[in-house]
From TrEMBL, chain A:
Any one GO biological process: phosphate ion transport
Record-given protein name: Phosphate transport system permease protein
Gene3D superfamilies for the chain: MetI-like
Pfam families assigned: BPD_transp_1 (PF00528)
Source organism phylogeny: Bacteria, Bacillati, Bacillota, Clostridia, Eubacteriales
PANTHER family: PHOSPHATE TRANSPORT SYSTEM PERMEASE PROTEIN PST, PHOSPHATE TRANSPORT SYSTEM PERMEASE PROTEIN PSTC
InterPro entries: MetI-like, MetI-like_sf, Phosphate_PstC, Phosphate_Transport_Permease
Xref: CDD domains: TM_PBP2
Length: 302, 363
């Protein structure tokens, strides 16, 4: 019996340890990225010191082996990341939610059976292929109308990102809309409201937490997207974008472009870029946890 | 009909139109992407595309004036291919640029013998091209342009990362569903799983490069890539498995415990087998995720488009090479051809996961 008891204990501890690997991974990732990325801002860094203020407010990225000649400003990248994600969200949210409305409320069964796998497929396409599509299809079209010589631009990034976050928004919105109890709709019909009126004045407001979760998740995907964006952003060396035609350089792209060959302070600054990206993602995650917690409350009430 | 009613009708109609328009845009964007990739990529598909090496491979053969070449070539549109090779032919001892032995086979192209390029006129009797005295070199090329090494690398990464992540993920899910009591530990594990799921792959790539490639000394290698991807997979495996564990009826556990089985026996022999379809779903989702992964692999498993000789060698996956082809070489056709393969696999995986999902509703 004692032997068996000990085995049970060992098993429990084993399962606990595997559960804690997720925690350890988060801690390790945070530690490694922050440790490497914050070094340049402390005095006595052996690769050279760089002012945090110049980093966070700088408008130019010009790596150089000589620290005095280099400039590592990422404000314009932060702006580029935010603009492109915001633009994509503005485009994709209405389209995505209304597509979800069609799937959840209006479409006949056999159409749903086609549409849902289609949305699933769209979300399963690897990001590199969105980049290839952007580079081969969207960029040449933009090039024809753009005042600049190249088609790689903020607009191209927005369009590619919008298509990428569309399936996330659609599938989360469908789940949210389907969770609204049927009694709500029947009550509304009984009062003489039309189907469309019911959808817009009752179902969508009732599902707003779930819809919001989809939007936030889409935003996270947009900020963190790398490969597709890298192919269509143009990756400018500096300057805040003032028009849709201008090239941008989002945070993720900065890291991915130069990590392969960087060293010394340059590489540490790339990790510093990752720290900023990490903080954005962390913030988005916190918002998401808040929303999903609220979502849980609503479920209980139903 | 009153004015009010007509106004409402018009409003409803407009909104309905908007809904149809948006659905059309969603479906349209999918069709546009698929259309672009297939139109551009399908012409590049062939049997050769799947079995050939990615890079051209050049070999050199040293020939003496007295040699009998012992090879036959056949002229095709793009060159002269070896159709047969006799035993004892000097072509059996070809070497590559580094002087290492390289075995030639049927289908390799003979480009030149000495200074003479092969042409339609002279390819009938190759022996005639040998010099009267001294020795010359023949140049033989095995044409690349195929994705075989990429397929092998991708499969290696899939197998290895699942081998690492599945046991960890499944037992973590078991802990969460069968052991954990509400409290700090449970909350922090759940929170961290959420965080892991939200971290962009480029950050995983950086982390993998620091920890596995450098700190643990794996170098740019398939192993480092698989370890990095394994962490990315954890949230998917844990969540999916946990969902299934929840659906295993409590009566299964009670029955097993009632018969005198211990908790660990119940978990290993009853609960986990009962949730096999859910674990299978997790595996399918993971394979999809790995095939699509590129940013995390770029800095961990590297960019070498050849079959990794062992786990510590670098190898590019399908999507990494699709990126390199499109961005660095401007070869969109190659990228799209790889894309067609990847999309077909994704469609197959989606189909499978739906089939397995139907199995799961058995309870």
């Amino acid at each position: 019996m004692g032997q068996q008891h000990r085995n049970e204990k060992i098993a429990k501890i084993f399962f606990l340890i595997t559960g804690l690997i997720a925690v350890a991974s988060v801690l390790l990732i945070t530690f490694f990225v922050f440790f490497q990325g914050l070094q340049p801002f402390f005095p006595f860094n052996k690769e050279g010191r760089y002012s945090f203020w110049k980093f966070i407010s700088g408008l130019q990225w010009k790596p150089n082996d000589e620290v005095a000649k280099a400039s590592y400003g990422i404000l314009y990248m932060i702006v580029g990341s935010l603009f492109s994600t915001l633009g994509a969200v503005i485009l994709a949210v209405p389209i995505g939610i209304l597509t979800a409305v069609y799937i959840a409320e209006l479409a006949p069964r056999f159409v749903v059976k086609i549409l849902q796998p289609a949305v699933e497929l769209l979300s399963g396409i690897p990001s590199v292929l969105f980049g290839v599509f952007g580079l081969g299809f969207i960029v040449p079209i933009i090039m024809k109308t753009s005042p600049y010589a190249r088609g790689q631009s903020l607009l191209a990034v927005i369009l590619v990102l919008a298509v990428m976050i569309l399936p996330i928004i659609v599938s989360l919105s469908v789940t949210a809309l389907q969770a609204v109890p049927h009694a709500y709709r029947e009550g509304s019909y009984a009062l003489g409201a039309s189907k469309i009126h019911t959808i817009f004045h009752l179902v969508i407001p009732a599902a707003r937490s779930g819809l919001l979760a989809g939007i936030v998740l889409g935003t996270g995907r947009g900020i963190g997207e790398t490969m597709a964006v890298m192919m269509v952003a143009g990756n400018s060396g500096g300057g805040i974008p003032t028009s849709l035609w201008q090239q941008i350089r989002p945070l993720t792209v900065n890291i991915a472009m130069e990590m392969g060959y960087s060293s010394g302070l340059h590489q540490e600054m790339l990790f510093a870029t990752a720290v900023i990206l990490f903080l954005f993602i962390f913030g988005i995650n916190l918002i998401l946890t808040k929303i999903t917690a609220k979502l849980g409350d609503v479920d209980v009430k139903f | 009909m009153s004015n009010f009613k007509i106004k409402n009708r018009v409003k409803d109609g407009a909104l309905r139109g908007l809904i149809y328009l948006c659905t059309g845009l969603t479906v349209g964007s999918l069709l546009l992407i698929l259309g672009y990739i297939f139109v551009k990529g399908v012409p590049g598909l062939s049997v050769d595309f799947f079995i050939r090496d990615f890079n051209d491979k050049t070999a050199y053969v040293t020939l003496q004036e007295t040699d009998d070449l012992g090879v036959q070539v056949e002229a095709r549109d793009d060159g002269f291919y070896i159709t047969s090779m006799e035993k004892g032919s000097p072509f059996a001892s070809a070497v590559n640029q580094n002087g290492d032995r390289q075995k030639l086979t049927k289908g390799d192209q003979i480009v030149s013998i000495g200074d003479t390029k092969l042409t339609a006129e002279n390819c009938g009797d190759l022996n005639a091209l040998l010099p009267d005295t001294g020795q010359v070199q023949a140049k033989v090329v095995r044409v690349g342009g195929g994705i075989f090494p990429l397929l092998v690398t991708t499969l290696m990464i899939i197998g290895l990362s699942l081998l690492i992540a599945l046991p960890i993920g499944i037992s973590a899910a078991v802990y969460l569903n069968e052991y954990a009591k509400p409290g700090k530990i449970l909350r922090s594990i759940r929170f961290c799983i959420e965080i892991l799921a939200g971290i962009p792959s480029i950050i995983y790539g950086l982390f993998g490069m620091l920890l596995f490639v450098r700190f643990m000394g794996m170098g740019f290698s398939v192993l480092a890539g698989a370890c990095t991807v394994a962490i990315i997979l954890l949230p998917t495996i844990i969540r999916t498995t946990e969902e299934t564990l929840k659906t295993v009826p409590e009566s299964y556990r009670e029955g097993s415990l009632g018969l005198g089985a211990t908790k660990i026996q119940t978990i290993v022999k009853i609960v986990i087998p009962a949730s096999a379809p859910g674990i299978l779903t997790a595996v399918i989702l993971c394979i999809g995720r790995i095939i699509g992964e590129s940013a995390a692999l770029l800095f961990t498993s590297g960019t070498q488009a050849r079959i990794p000789g062992n786990l510590l060698e670098s190898g590019a996956s399908l999507t990494v090479q699709a990126y390199l082809a499109a961005k660095e070489k401007g070869d969109l056709s190659m990228a799209c051809s790889i894309g067609v393969v990847v999309i077909l696999v994704v469609i197959l995986l989606n189909f499978l996961s739906r089939k397995v999902g139907k199995l799961m509703t058995k309870f």
